[in-house]
Structures are given as structure tokens and as C-alpha cells.
Amino acid sequence: MPHFNAQRGKWMAQVVISGVKHRSQHDSKAEAKQWEAEKKKELGSQQEFSAIRTVSLLEWATMYLDHAKTKFVTKTYKEKRFVFRQLFNAFPSDMDVFFLHKGQVLAHFREQSLRRSGYAANKDRKNLVAAWNWGIQYLPGFPSENPFLTERFAENRTLRQVPTEKDFWAVYEVAESEQDRLMLLCYLHLAARRNEIFHLLREDVDFDRSRVRLATRKRKDGSQQYDWLPLTDRLHKALSEHLAATPGPWVFPDPRSGLPYVYRQKWLDRLCRKAEVEPFGLHGIRHLSASMLISAKVSLLDVQTILRHTNLTTTQRYVHRLESVRKAIEVFE
Fold first, then answer.
1. Whole domain around residue 242: which residue ranges?
2. Residue 245 included in any domain
3. Tell me, what's the pLDDT at 47?
4. Is residue 201 part of a domain?
5. Of the candidates 177, 239, 164, which has an alpha carbon nearest to the alpha carbon of residue 203?
6. Residue 265 lies in a domain
């Protein structure tokens, strides 16, 4: 079935015979359909060929997003869905996947880099490369050459702000409630990711064994993984008192809804301004935790266990080696 290519302003016709693709472009849908019919007649009987349209961009995207919805967390799924929306602003959704070329894709990424940023374009590229590779693996007859494997774009990324211990405690002191202060303490003492504390359940805290269970989906296959970490004495006492006064299954419910937080984007910014310190985020506290462990001479393997990294290389990226570098440059004195 012919489809219209908006970029070329043409109707695209295609016939596949014995695995060989025959393509043509026309000014009208009728001409394209006529060409397909004549080509089929020319090249053999109806039994010798399969007429064409393989998979459209929309069909490919829909099937991949259905897969992604069950495999990845909601945030990742929404990110991938947004990437496809940007793609369909540039290409017709009914376009056959065989008609997508690297040059067209590169132009789309270039526009994204100018309109949004090089980092955003590269992130779109990463998601679409993965989606196309999924199609190669699971969709029969899907094109094996990935058109999204284009060159990358320059990124102007700022370094993540890692607070000093002094700045962290300054923010801790100005937090509005005991629950907020305890939440900050959990991020520091457990080197936790944002959602690991947002979604912490009462049943995840084992006071008898003085430990807490953290759940993460930050794994390659998107699976949920649980890890137990020991509680510090201070955290054990604070959590025990907090849960005694907090009803419901969640350790840190949003007071407005009783449900776990989803986003607290402005909360920490507000506290940083109030404490008059350089703004930092929740993930910056995780980096601070790693730095404090290294400064205390904790082994890299133990730091890896606390941060719950599957790869030691990832842990090494968290380690801020200013002290060792400072000693190294003493040779210049």
C-alpha cells in the first residue's frame, strides 16, 4: 500500500519480490498504486511475491513502547514516548521503516540539538538506537541497518553540584519538619537514590536486625532489585520514633495526600536558598556520601556495596580524589 512522504512531497510505492525490494515515487496515490500493480504483473504471479508495506514507523513505535511500558520504570517509559513524539514531528507516522535514511535522521537530531541541546539530541539518539535494535531482534523482515547510528553532538553539561558537609548540615537545620530532616538524613546515611527513599515502606525497615531494604530499577534489564543496608544508630533511633507517630504503610508520605512523593523539584532548591548555600540536588547528597566514605578510608569495595553499584567502575566515578591529587601536586612546591 503506498504511503505519502511529507518531506519529499511524493507518494512512495514498494513491492518486494523474492526478497528484493522495488521502490518508486509518484505525484499521486493512484499513480503509486498503479505502479505497484504493474510491477507485480511484470515480475510474476501473485504467489511469487509479497506486496509491500512492511512496518510503518508508528507500528514499530507502538510495539516497542508496549514492550518498554512493562520493562522500564514510568519515568523511562515517558522519556521514550516523548522521543517518538519528537520523531513524528519530523517524519510521517505511516512512513515505511525502509524509507528512513541516516541523512534524514541526522537532520532531525541536528534540529533537536539547536532547539533543545546537544545532550538532548544525543539522549534521543540513544533511545531510538535501542528501539531500532529491538525491532531488528523481534520484528521479522525489519531493516538490519540502524539509521539512528549517526554522529553525536557536542554537549555543554555542567558538573553536578556536590555539597560540602557544612552545606548539607546547614540545609538540614533549616528543613521545615522533622520528617524532612529525617528524609535528608536517610539520603546521607544510606547514600540512597531519590525514589529509594520516596517509595520506602514500613515493612522495608527491620529494627530487630537494624537494617533497611532499598529497591531500585537501575539495572540493565529494568528488573526491580532489593538490597539490605545496615542502619546507623542515629538513623535507627530517628526512624523508630518517626514510624511510631506515622500511620500508614509509607515511611515518608506526602502530608497532603498520604501517598509517596513523586517529585519534590523545588523543595531542596528552597532549602538551599534559605540556608544561603550553593544549590544541590538529592543525587548530590549521594555523591557527598561517597566522598565522606572515601575520606574515612573505607575500601572501594565497601563503598561499592553501600552505593549498590553492580560495576566497580561506576563507583570510581563517584569518588572525588581531590585529596590524593592535592598530595600528588606537592611535588611542584
1. 165-329
2. yes
3. 43
4. yes
5. 239
6. yes
Place of cell 521514550: 80
Q: For the chain, what's the residue count?
A: 333
Q: How far apart are CA 258 and CA 223, in angstroms?
A: 27
Angle of helix 74-90 versus helix 57-71 axis, rounded to 10: 170
Three-state DSSP at 100 gives coil
Q: Are 57 and 88 in contact (CB under 8 A)?
A: yes
The 10s digit of each residue's pLDDT in 169-195 is 999 999 999 999 999 999 999 999 999
- Contact indicator for 215, 226 with CB cutoff of 8 Å: yes
Residue position matching grid coordinates 504483473: 41
pLDDT 10s digits, 56-87: 999 999 999 999 998 888 888 999 999 999 99
Please state, in angstroms and rounded to a whole number, the distance separating the CA atoms of residues 188 and 168.
9
Q: How far apart are CA 106 and CA 248, in angstroms?
A: 51
| Burial of 9 from C-beta contacts in 10 A (0-12 / 13-18 / 19+) | exposed
**pLDDT given for residue 333 in this prediction:** 61
Give the DSSP H or E segment for 85: helix 74-90
Q: Residue 166, Cβ neighbours under 10 Å: how many?
A: 9
If we measure between CA atoms, which residue out of 323, 304, 291 comes closest to residue 161? Answer: 291
Domain match, 118 and 82 both: yes
Residue 106 lies inside a defined structural domain of this protein? yes
